[in-house]
Design goal:
With 139 residues, this protein is mainly α. It has one domain (17-128). The chain has helices at residues 3-14, 17-45, 50-91, 99-128. The longest helix is centred in the middle third of the chain and has 42 residues, at 50-91. The radius of gyration is 19 Å and the shape is elongated.
Protein backbone atom coordinates (compact mmCIF):
# COMPACT_ATOMS: atom_id res chain seq x y z
CA UNK A 1 0.00 0.00 0.00
CA UNK A 2 1.40 3.40 -1.03
CA UNK A 3 1.70 6.37 1.29
CA UNK A 4 -1.38 8.14 -0.11
CA UNK A 5 -3.51 5.01 0.22
CA UNK A 6 -2.21 4.42 3.74
CA UNK A 7 -2.98 8.03 4.75
CA UNK A 8 -6.50 7.66 3.34
CA UNK A 9 -6.94 4.40 5.23
CA UNK A 10 -5.70 5.90 8.50
CA UNK A 11 -7.87 8.94 7.91
CA UNK A 12 -10.85 6.63 7.55
CA UNK A 13 -9.89 4.72 10.72
CA UNK A 14 -9.34 7.90 12.70
CA UNK A 15 -12.28 9.77 11.24
CA UNK A 16 -10.18 12.83 10.49
CA UNK A 17 -10.70 13.31 6.75
CA UNK A 18 -13.62 15.66 7.36
CA UNK A 19 -11.77 17.37 10.20
CA UNK A 20 -8.74 18.20 8.04
CA UNK A 21 -10.97 19.60 5.31
CA UNK A 22 -12.89 21.75 7.81
CA UNK A 23 -9.68 23.00 9.41
CA UNK A 24 -8.33 23.98 5.99
CA UNK A 25 -11.48 25.92 5.10
CA UNK A 26 -11.83 27.61 8.49
CA UNK A 27 -8.19 28.61 8.87
CA UNK A 28 -7.99 29.57 5.20
CA UNK A 29 -11.05 31.79 5.63
CA UNK A 30 -9.49 33.36 8.73
CA UNK A 31 -6.36 34.04 6.72
CA UNK A 32 -8.30 35.58 3.83
CA UNK A 33 -10.26 37.87 6.15
CA UNK A 34 -7.08 38.88 7.95
CA UNK A 35 -5.49 39.80 4.61
CA UNK A 36 -8.60 41.76 3.66
CA UNK A 37 -8.48 43.62 6.98
CA UNK A 38 -4.81 44.44 6.59
CA UNK A 39 -5.21 45.66 3.02
CA UNK A 40 -8.25 47.76 3.99
CA UNK A 41 -6.28 49.24 6.89
CA UNK A 42 -3.37 50.10 4.62
CA UNK A 43 -5.73 51.73 2.12
CA UNK A 44 -7.60 53.74 4.76
CA UNK A 45 -4.32 54.97 6.22
CA UNK A 46 -3.17 56.17 2.81
CA UNK A 47 -0.26 53.75 2.66
CA UNK A 48 0.09 52.60 -0.93
CA UNK A 49 3.45 50.87 -0.63
CA UNK A 50 2.86 47.42 -2.12
CA UNK A 51 6.03 45.98 -0.57
CA UNK A 52 4.84 47.05 2.88
CA UNK A 53 1.40 45.52 2.27
CA UNK A 54 2.83 42.20 1.09
CA UNK A 55 5.23 42.11 4.05
CA UNK A 56 2.41 42.78 6.50
CA UNK A 57 0.19 40.13 4.94
CA UNK A 58 3.05 37.62 4.94
CA UNK A 59 3.74 38.27 8.62
CA UNK A 60 0.06 37.79 9.44
CA UNK A 61 -0.07 34.57 7.37
CA UNK A 62 2.97 33.19 9.22
CA UNK A 63 1.43 34.07 12.59
CA UNK A 64 -1.88 32.44 11.61
CA UNK A 65 0.01 29.39 10.38
CA UNK A 66 1.89 29.03 13.66
CA UNK A 67 -1.34 29.48 15.60
CA UNK A 68 -3.06 26.88 13.42
CA UNK A 69 -0.23 24.39 13.81
CA UNK A 70 -0.06 24.63 17.59
CA UNK A 71 -3.81 24.58 18.18
CA UNK A 72 -4.44 21.69 15.79
CA UNK A 73 -1.49 19.71 17.14
CA UNK A 74 -2.67 20.00 20.73
CA UNK A 75 -6.34 19.34 20.06
CA UNK A 76 -5.97 16.57 17.46
CA UNK A 77 -3.30 14.69 19.42
CA UNK A 78 -5.54 14.68 22.48
CA UNK A 79 -8.61 13.65 20.47
CA UNK A 80 -6.81 10.80 18.73
CA UNK A 81 -5.38 9.52 22.04
CA UNK A 82 -8.83 9.68 23.63
CA UNK A 83 -10.43 7.89 20.69
CA UNK A 84 -7.81 5.12 20.75
CA UNK A 85 -8.18 4.73 24.51
CA UNK A 86 -11.98 4.42 24.20
CA UNK A 87 -11.57 1.81 21.46
CA UNK A 88 -9.09 -0.15 23.60
CA UNK A 89 -11.53 -0.11 26.52
CA UNK A 90 -14.41 -1.25 24.30
CA UNK A 91 -12.34 -4.08 22.81
CA UNK A 92 -10.61 -4.92 26.10
CA UNK A 93 -7.38 -5.10 24.20
CA UNK A 94 -4.08 -3.26 23.80
CA UNK A 95 -4.04 -1.67 20.34
CA UNK A 96 -0.60 -0.07 20.58
CA UNK A 97 0.72 -2.14 17.63
CA UNK A 98 -2.38 -1.78 15.44
CA UNK A 99 -3.31 0.31 12.42
CA UNK A 100 -5.58 2.29 14.76
CA UNK A 101 -2.53 3.25 16.83
CA UNK A 102 -0.62 4.20 13.68
CA UNK A 103 -3.54 6.37 12.63
CA UNK A 104 -3.66 8.01 16.07
CA UNK A 105 0.04 8.94 15.71
CA UNK A 106 0.06 10.13 12.10
CA UNK A 107 -3.31 11.84 11.69
CA UNK A 108 -2.61 14.71 14.11
CA UNK A 109 0.44 15.55 11.97
CA UNK A 110 -1.63 15.57 8.76
CA UNK A 111 -4.38 17.68 10.32
CA UNK A 112 -1.80 20.01 11.87
CA UNK A 113 -0.06 20.61 8.55
CA UNK A 114 -3.39 21.13 6.79
CA UNK A 115 -4.48 23.67 9.39
CA UNK A 116 -1.16 25.49 9.54
CA UNK A 117 -0.52 25.72 5.80
CA UNK A 118 -3.98 27.02 4.84
CA UNK A 119 -3.29 30.75 5.39
CA UNK A 120 0.14 30.51 3.77
CA UNK A 121 -1.23 28.74 0.70
CA UNK A 122 -4.03 31.27 0.36
CA UNK A 123 -1.57 34.13 0.80
CA UNK A 124 0.50 32.68 -2.08
CA UNK A 125 -2.69 32.50 -4.15
CA UNK A 126 -3.54 36.14 -3.40
CA UNK A 127 -0.05 37.39 -4.30
CA UNK A 128 0.60 35.30 -7.39
CA UNK A 129 -2.84 34.35 -8.71
CA UNK A 130 -2.97 31.39 -11.07
CA UNK A 131 0.70 31.59 -11.98
CA UNK A 132 3.16 29.13 -10.49
CA UNK A 133 5.92 31.70 -10.87
CA UNK A 134 6.01 34.87 -8.75
CA UNK A 135 5.54 37.96 -10.90
CA UNK A 136 8.80 39.42 -9.64
CA UNK A 137 10.67 36.46 -11.21
CA UNK A 138 9.31 37.06 -14.72
CA UNK A 139 11.18 40.30 -15.44
Amino acid sequence: MGIIERLRYWSHLGGSDDIARRYFVVNGFDGALTMLGLIAGFQFSGTGDLKLMISGCTGAAVALGISGVTSACLSESAEQRRSLSELEEAMISDLSNSEHANAAKILPVVVTLTNGLAPLLLRWRVDFGDSDVPKSFTR
